[in-house]
Design goal:
Blueprint: H1 6-27, H2 32-60, H3 64-81, H4 84-93, H5 97-122
Helix pairs in contact: 1-3, 2-3, 2-5
């Protein structure tokens, strides 16, 4: 992959550890109502935050520091925070169909909202 380095790999790994630890901490909350919706809520929040990060880094251009931020925050932290694999397993085994569909729709909506908010944040700012 052009422009990818061992430093970027380290940033992804470090960010992934942080994101995974944050998700694991949230999954430790022992409330029945939370346990029923924890993974979908985490994924929707992650989609929103990834939208914000994407809008901000795209606006900043393709520089070394922007690539590093994208690797750490987007691929690392938010990649570790969200969990498509758990979502997919729940969709196939335990989750009601409505919750599965709602999670997908809300995730796309949250990502679009994050993009809009990230772009709005960048308006008037210098790269």
């Amino acid at each position: 992959m052009p422009g990818f380095s061992w430093t970027h790999l380290g940033l992804v790994v470090a960010g992934g550890a942080i994101g995974t630890a944050a998700r694991a901490g949230l999954l430790l909350i022992n409330a029945p109502a939370w346990q029923a919706v924890a993974v979908p809520v985490i994924n929707v929040i992650g989609a929103f935050l990834l939208g914000v990060v994407t809008a901000v880094v795209v606006r900043r251009g393709d520089t070394a520091s922007v690539r590093a931020a994208r690797m750490f925050l987007g691929t690392g932290v938010l990649g570790g925070f969200t969990t498509y694999s758990t979502f997919a397993v729940q969709a196939m085994t335990a989750a009601p169909v409505g919750l599965t569909v709602a999670t997908a729709v809300l995730g796309v909506g949250a990502a679009l909202l994050g993009l809009r908010m990230g772009r709005a944040r960048g308006e008037g700012a210098t790269p």
